[in-house]
Amino acid sequence: MATGRQPHQPEGSPSGAQPAEAVPEGQPQRAARPRQVLDVGEFSRWQDQAASAAGLARLASGAGYYEWACFVAEQAAQVALKGLLHGIGAEAWGHDLSVLAQRAAEALGPLWPAELAGPAVRLSRHYIPARYPDAHPSGPPSAHYLASDADQALDDMEQLMAAVAGAWQSLSAGGP
Predict the structure, then answer these.
(1) Three-class DSSP labels, the chain
(2) CB neighbour class for 35 (10 Å; exposed up to 12, middle 13-18, buried from 19)
């Protein structure tokens, strides 16, 4: 079904392909690598929602709702990462942040920092236990979360969201 949105295509070519570079005489010709088509509108709408979730995570932490800060920080990072994947036309289904980060690494190569595997795994741990009492042997989730947990989750969220923004900026500028 058509949405009416058109993905951004780099200037100079209706197909989005980069023009071939001049090859020195005597050197073999290589096929020009097509430039990635970016869906700016889709990326932007996901990033707007991720920013909203990030704000809520900070508010929850400041109000002492540490379990909710952790869960919403995971959601903010997940939404930001899904937006990046949607924006580059990569597979973005699922809710496991560590799997989504792996997809970003595969799709983006050097534009996705390898050290983000740790923050993605840590945040993934908050997807269920931060919300459901039966995810713990006793007590509500709030009894199992501390300010330090929320601080770590917010830091992990910020790292992932900054990496998403950095990768998008590089891609928009014609990076690898």
Answers:
(1) CCCCCCCECCCCCCCCECCCCCCCCCCCCCCCCECCCECHHHHHHHHHHHHHHHHHHHHHHHCCCHHHHHHHHHHHHHHHHHHHHHHHCCCCCCCCHHHHHHHHHHHHHHHCCHHHHHHHHHHHCCCCCCCCHHHCCCCCHHHHCCHHHHHHHHHHHHHHHHHHHHHHHHHHCCCC
(2) middle
The residue count of the chain comes to 176
Residues 37 and 7 sit within 8 Å (Cβ to Cβ):
yes
**Statement: residue 17 has pLDDT above 80:** no
pLDDT digits (tens, 9 = 90+) for 31-71: 333 446 899 999 999 999 999 999 999 999 999 999 999 99
CATH node for 40-172: 1.20.120.330
Q: Which long-range contacts (CB under 8 A, 24 or more apart) does 88-97 make?
A: 88/36, 88/38, 88/39, 88/171, 89/7, 89/36, 89/37, 89/39, 95/127, 96/124, 96/127, 97/121, 97/123, 97/124, 97/127, 97/160
Domain ranges in the chain are: 40-172
Cα distance from N-terminal residue to C-terminal residue, the chain: 31
